[in-house]
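STRUCTURE REQUEST FORM
Protein name: SHOCT domain-containing protein
Source organism: Natronococcus pandeyae
Requested output: structure tokens
Priority: standard
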Amino acid sequence: MGTDGSGRGYSLTEIFAIKFVLADIVIIAALLFAGPIYAVAITALLVVSVFLVWYLTQRVGSIDDTDEIRTEHETVDPVTTLQERYAAGELSETEFEAKLEQLIDANERAERAGVETEELSLER
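Status: completed
Returned output:
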């Protein structure tokens, strides 16, 4: 999360506490300077924003990091991609076998030619 000057990270509870203190200050200022209708509107917006932040933190926390999130630097080999497409039903068994055979043949030809295959894609 955020860090203060000492390098310590803020917990989610501390962030919500800070948000509520700042929200109270804004609501009191709205009551004093703008009137009760604006104070109620600001309060409603702040409550909605708290629930939105809570929902998003729960949603992000529930995603399985190993299956669904891949960083842009993580590379997935073409065989794994092919297996995932077959498992998802995008490819029939014959298509899967044909593409796997193509991939194996292309890899063997590249090795014989001394070409590095890490940057190559499965599809043309």
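Reviewer notes: Residues 12-64 form one domain. The helical segments are 12-33, 36-62, 65-68, 78-87, 93-113.
Form closed.
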